[in-house]
Amino acid sequence: MQSNLYSNIVLHTGLGRINGHLTLDNLLIPSIGSPIILDWSSFLNDGPLWVDYAKLELDLLLHLVPTNDPQIWKYEWPSLSRALRHLPLEPFEAVGRLTPSALAIIAPIRSLVEKQKDHGSIDAFWLSAIYAGIDIFADPLQTSTNRLAAALYSAIALEEVQKNIGFQLPDSLPS
Description:
mainly alpha
């Protein structure tokens, strides 16, 4: 008899109205006033509430810490990867030329998640981050280095979900 590795895992995520594809390309930011969301083609009435935040966070990171330069991969992404494991972000992890300012820009997203922790938002955010990374990874219009960074973002989020729910793979998988 095969057992389901995930049979005892229950996660509660809030559902609500989401844009579904909130990225910098879908925002018009006037000099005065609030940002305007341009593209509503992926709108959902009952979507996971943290997906827009995770997608915007990853898109901001891809713009602020470019993935097409080997030196940035060598010196910035290791620091960024360590820092992204924390809610809220911990500034002592931020080293490099680009990483500190990138983390400062996404810090309000992480603070919002942390403030909602009593409502199951932390696991829901990490699950949304996994989705956001996979979504960008699967986009054929993305560069190969952006896709690699998106996969790394998803992997970090997956580790956090597994840690938070106490899930570990068994030594051997059922056949």
